[in-house]
Amino acid sequence: MSKKEPPEHNANIHAPWRMEYIRRLDKEPEGCFLCRAEQEAQNDDANLVLWRTPLCVVLMNRYPYTGGHLLIAPRAHKAGLEELDEPVLLELMKLTRDAQRLLGAVCRADGYNIGLNIGRCAGAGLPGHLHLHLVPRWSGDTNFMSVLADVRVIPQALSELHQQLLKVSREMQLPKS
Ligand SMILES: [Zn+2]
After folding, report:
1. Around ion ligand 1, which residues have CB less than 5 A away?
2. 131 is an active site residue
3. Which CATH superfamily is domain 8-172 in?
4. 8-28: per-residue pLDDT in tens?
5. Catalytic-labelled residue, pool 69, 131, 133, 162
């Protein structure tokens, strides 16, 4: 009988030291692109940062599911909702509202997916630093995206959209929070 390798997350259950190792890795600021973006205020264009508010940052996802995929994160490197104070939770939600308005104006989205992936097994690529995904959707975009699949990580396209989102943010006086 052939023996299959257990999935990564099963291995972690039986190797708690490995979980600790991963947890520590997640706390390393140099390994966290959200902490890096938060700290490098002078590199907002390179890091695709849109907005900085007292407790949060909003930036574009460099590997978007669809064009205009935004990330809304607390400035602090915290993994779970239970670690966030109420003012941070409120700011996250207000920014989500404002970012959705912005995408409505710029990308003319028909709908949105808004969500949190908590933990690696739930699909979090960066489980140590909580971030809310705001993904614009268009009617029939499944076909649309397969056509544009090669376009979505072109840095040029990302920076152009970044500049456009910044411009419209100023015109709409967003964020309001
Ligand atoms: Zn972080």
Report:
1. 32, 34-35, 77, 129
2. yes
3. HIT-like (3.30.428.10)
4. 443 333 444 445 555 555 555
5. 131
